[in-house]
Records
---
Amino acid sequence: MASPLLSSQRLLLLITAVLILNSQLPSSIASLAGNVLAPIVNFVSLPLRGPIYSTATRIAEREGASDFAHPGVPQTEEELRFAYGQALVEIERLKQEYEELKKRLELIEGVQAIDALETRPVTAKVTSYRDPGPRRVITLNRGSRQGIQPGMTVVYETVLVGRVVDPVGPSSSDVELVTSHDGGLQVRIRQQGIAMPFDNIRVRPSETDPDYFVAEVPKDSLIRSGAVVILADAVNYSDARGRLLGIVERKSDYTPDPELLDQLWIRAALLDTPFRKEVAVLLPKTAEHAAGN
Amino acid sequence: MNWIVFSITAYIFFALQAGLEPLWAVGDATPNLLLILAVFVGVSARKSAVPWGMLILGLLLDTLPGPLVGQGVILGPHAVGYLVGAYAVLQLRNLLFRESTITIVLMVFAVGGFAALVETLIYALRGLPWLANQGLGWSATEQLWRRLQELIYTAGVAVPVGLMLQSSRKLWGFTGRSKNERVF
């Protein structure tokens, strides 16, 4: 017959094994027990923890209000005037930035209204991000059960994120980011202040910086930094035409032919979105009907 | 060991640890009061009670916000780390004078070191593709460096807290060594 200590040791081993297993499961399952225990612990400890926390916060704020904690706080009238002047400049800069962003948004929305295809977005959470060599891949928590198939376009709001690739699992799928696209993409570039867009421009991922696309344009082109790059490819990502691909960040001489051509450096717009949290997969309307059946 | 005294002390230490964070955080580091309590229990309690006490303290720590932002509360990393720490303290405690505060300070480094290694390893394993495949977006080296800072801070705080705990030994009902425990 086992002694109580031995059975206690066995129980400990079992608990250890369960805890190790629990800590290696996906968070949706692993956090089940924790999400039950944590509120209980919080509730029980709150009568003591609450007053301690509020007292500690008050003391910390009082200490934080001293000159030592905030050496940048203006002390003299002259410093105060200088700070006020700086604040006015900052407000002016923010106003300009707001106007520019507003105009860009109007441009994008205008193009989308023309080109957007009939699709149904299915939101999906991003469960992982991998960067194996030149390919950047995210994994979604939606798969074939939700009607997702290889080749479908993935977006974050108006921004193109990438494309679903093989294999697609029942409840998970991999998405190759557009920055890893192998080959060129046809785009349309809209320059603020110019009514007609620049069509038939081909961009490709930069070989030196994976955050950028590059494109060559004639030396006399009016495209400048801040121009909006929108996908207009009929072969690749055909259902994502009108989606934002990037923003022209700078223009430099195209080294092989600096006399005739400039090179545009286009920062991928998806990098400025929280695409690693949640995205939307564009399902064709027909897929919706098929799933419904 | 008197489990009622343990529960009350654990409750107070947990409340203090979570409540005092805004006041005594230095950078990212805050002292770990529950680790000091775990070490005190580890060096003083009967062999059979040590793993259970440390498991409970580890589970309590797991309920506090960890490095997994947006992934919920995951039980395991601290609890398993403290169980490994319990094994370490049981191996080492016979070499040291148990009723000394210096022992508690030294054991904070030993137990905390083992617990930090295990905890970081468990979190790091979550990033492997054949396991949970949920990376944290941090490097294990940075996490270990942060935990080392916390250990140094905790060791500093362990001096007054250890003195206080040692002075309350009578309340704890520690009855010496277990029947089969080796002295040397």
---
Amino acid sequence: MKPYDGLRVLELEGAAGMYCGKILSFLGAEVIKIESPEGDICRKKGPFKPGVDDTESSLYYAYFNTGKKSITLDISIPQGGEIFKELVKESHVIIESFAPGQLKSWGLDYDTLKEIRPGLIMLSITPFGQSGPHSGWNASSDLIVDAMGGPMADAGIEGKGPLHLGGDIMTAMAGMYGLFAIQAAYHNYLFTNEGAHIDLSQQECFITWKNQSLGFTQVDGKSPGLRKPDAVRQGLVRCKDGFAFVMIGGKWKEVLEWFSDTGQDISVFDNPVYAQHAVEVLTRWDTVLLERFNILGSNYTKTEFMLEGQRRRIPVGVLETPDTLLENEHLKARGYFREVEHPVLGRLLYPGEPVKMSGYSQLTGVPAPLLGEHNKEVYSRLGYSLEQLEDFRQRNII
Amino acid sequence: MDRLPLSDITILDLTWVIAGPLATRLFCDLGARVIKVESRKSFDVLRSGCRRKGNDDPRKEGGWNYNDLNHGKMHITINLKSEKGREVFEELVRISDVVVSNFSAAAFKKLRLTYEELREINPGIIVMNASGLGDWGPFSSFVTFAPILQSMTGIESLVGYEGADSPLGSYPPVADYMGSLAVCNYLMAALEFRRKTGKGQFLDLSQGEAAVSYLGHILLDWQVNRVKKGLRGNHHYADCAAPHNVYQCLGENQWCAISVASEKEWKAFAKIIDPCGEWTNSEKYSSTEARVANQKELDERISRWTRQKTAKEVGELLQAAGVSGVPVQNSEDLLYKDEHLKERKFFRKMVFPPSDREPDSFIVNGLPFFINGYRPTGDLAPAPEMGWDTRYVVENILGKSREWYDEAVKAEAFI
């Protein structure tokens, strides 16, 4: 028995809801992507595998759509809309990220669809929400939403400017607020038979991730601002072969022990300014402390430094690039990566489930679908014959 | 809404700092009953920071950050190491759906919070421990915080200026937020699993693994293309859009962000920045690929244009033309100036009881979505003093007598 056994989800085009749908498929839901006949726009988003069929070359699409089914359908034309409604009648959840008003212009808004399918849950994800003066604003990248409300304004060096965390990571994160909303709405539906329209604003999601800044702004009377160019670099310690990141995290005694065990004179730290490191979790390093850490670090490779620090119960981690994760001994021991075979992209390692459930083995080995791979399966369930499907194809409905 | 969606759920919350508490507060926002457990000897470290002027006692009143993540929860203190305290705790397990904590793997076992132990008390209990690196494995004993996890998972390496010798470092703690989202999603999944099967289970949440699951496509890229990508500043990580950057505007520390991801968007942008078509028509900018290849020059030209305008002007001009351009908004902009957020009533006001501490109210985050037009809005009270609800919970939820409570106090169950 799977957590979302029997749950039918229709995922419309676009990036914003993909990770949400992916986790639902891990948890046993049937997630059907409804792609335009040319394919979801995300099939054109990199990174890519070169030298293979264009439509199936996107590694971005391949990762975020594992376990889902794909059908083609042009919901923007009346005939396509009618077929879509038939699918809706059989489904529980719709995930969509069209601009506000777009579905309505096609006669496929929530109010219309809920008449066809009482208890329907629709998650609408947009950069700024369904209402408000900016709801019509364009955001062709999550760079834009980050600028308008995310951590960007606090990340960077004065003069050089704010920095964005790319990789479409923030988009995927906002999608998980959407998943929580779907899960809550579905939970409620089981009590009341009442469906829900969920209006999720990516901007508002991103704002919830700049907690500290919002708080300090109110306490200090102004925004924290970017880092000063001559500010002491916090936490990054140079080791023999790269960097490690250290937080004192209240373990000041342990840090001083480490310094002196490796031959450093720690009398300079008798100065009362350093006492804060013993009591506060977030503390600021001065030049002296950074220098001493760099001297310490020069004795070790970054991995040795991490292991020794952790042995002393000091929070330390190596500063790595993502590619090294595939060799990470801890992740390997935990069986975190799964081999997934994709008909065009071949066999590759994918991150498995983000959380391990003892009671259920998540479906992490199914690849992303080829375009329209499940047309026959899904449409014949609706009662369409192959001849009818061929006719639809001719008329560009599917 | 006739009922709050999660009003049937009781969560026994032993989590601290950011990831766990934000998740359980989201459950609270949607109606769940959340009982937060601290002890006088070790309380949530987040209480200490960001305190109001005149607030000397974090146990009585936590800082802004603490209040934002913990309002709405019942607050009790239990000494888990005392016999009576353990007895109270087990009674609470009996009436709860979920027990969630974020101890290290070792502490989790030492405090006897494992699923094997707790299911003896409540057969249907769902137990989750959200640790940095998981319940088991070579690094499971590590002491971690979000920046450490972000370093180890490579997230930090994705943020930095092109040509710099190292990433920016100390990026805001997104790993914590990845963790809290995973707590929410998987507790809900386990609740649904139990509804179908009657069975609880153990959820082993490694914040690091939750974080790495956002990087799958980057890992596929590495396996297929074997190219180590250096720091990219604000350029698109997969070259799907150009221009794609943050540009300086008129005034001090004024910036705007511009993204052009299609030919349609490029044409509209070109009309604004180069109305006479003097340079935008060039082959160098005739496709995304070409624009990416000539990004440096493109950025310089755009910069010359943006420097003459305020960030607000850039946003208005570009949005009116259907182009993704916006000012970079800082916290003051968000809290006090953004009209869109005001109309959507996103922020809420936390009002403190009268005292000599300052300020007497704080603006806090609301819920970032509406369900059927509903989300909690308006003023709200701060999180209560540590242990405020202990007696209430023991007498009214566990149904114990006043005498029983007093005995338990004597037996040091609530310190």
